[in-house]
Design goal:
The protein is 52% helix and 7% strand. The protein is built from 8 helices and 4 strands, in the order βαβαββαααααα. The relative contact order is 0.14. Homodimer.
Length: 230
């Protein structure tokens, strides 16, 4: 069985956990507190970031993008019409564009600052960057959520899923990031019914269930976090 080094509220880790679930693959989860910069983990990924997938063969694949590409190259054909990265170049470009949108833009504007300020700083020493949350960063991130929800709604008004007719890596990445923000109670779902309906479809998939059982010590999720009828 493969091993996935992850952090529970790391959106990139959640993206790969969702992908593994869609592929029907099990992996042993090893939690990494990346701010501790554990030597054994840095030997796997000198960048010190999660996720990192390690196969039983010893092959190490670091980062959400490389892992997603690796899974598609090694297991994608087996999914047939459910393949998460389309076969055609146009479809692949659109999925990769949206992967950048969520794994880079959404992360920088929303997920990373919220998780850092509201969660990670609670467990980090002062030398590691811990301390009280920066409220201005939290307010800015919360404000940015609305813009991204509107973009998701715009995409789903034109398509069955975010990148086209079929579920893809784009949907999994977007849902992974929103699930982190939703855990913290910072998604104004009542303001965008279309985005909420799309998220409910993802949230109801079997691959999503393990994420709904995640808990951060000393920090309970929002009241509707694991409610499929939110």
């Amino acid at each position: 069985m493969a091993t996935l080094h992850h952090y529970a509220l790391c959106p990139h880790s959640r993206f790969i956990r969702l992908a593994l679930g869609e592929f029907g693959l099990d992996a042993t989860l090893v939690e990494e507190r990346v701010w501790e910069r554990r030597r054994e983990f840095l030997e796997l990924n000198p960048a010190g970031t999660t996720p990192v997938l390690r196969e039983d063969s010893g092959l190490v694949v670091p980062g959400p993008g490389p892992i997603a590409e690796y899974l598609d190259e090694t297991r994608g054909l087996a999914l047939a019409e459910r393949r998460l990265l389309p076969e055609g170049p146009g479809g692949r470009i659109e999925v990769r564009r949206l992967l950048d949108w969520f794994n880079i833009k959404f992360n920088e504007e929303i997920t990373a600052p919220l998780v850092l300020e509201k969660v990670m700083k609670r467990f980090m020493s002062r030398d590691e960057g811990g301390g009280p949350p920066e409220m201005s960063a939290i307010r800015a991130a919360r404000g940015n959520v609305r813009y991204h929800l509107r973009y998701i709604a715009w995409l789903t008004a034109k398509r069955n899923w975010l990148a086209g007719d079929n579920l893809s890596y784009a949907d999994l990445a977007a849902a992974a990031h929103l699930s982190c923000v939703d855990y913290l109670g910072d998604v104004p779902w009542d303001e965008d019914e279309a985005a909420r309906a799309w998220y409910a479809r993802i949230k109801s998939r079997p691959s999503f269930r393990p994420l709904l059982s995640d808990r951060i010590p000393g920090m309970a999720p929002s009241a509707h976090y694991d409610d499929l009828d939110f």
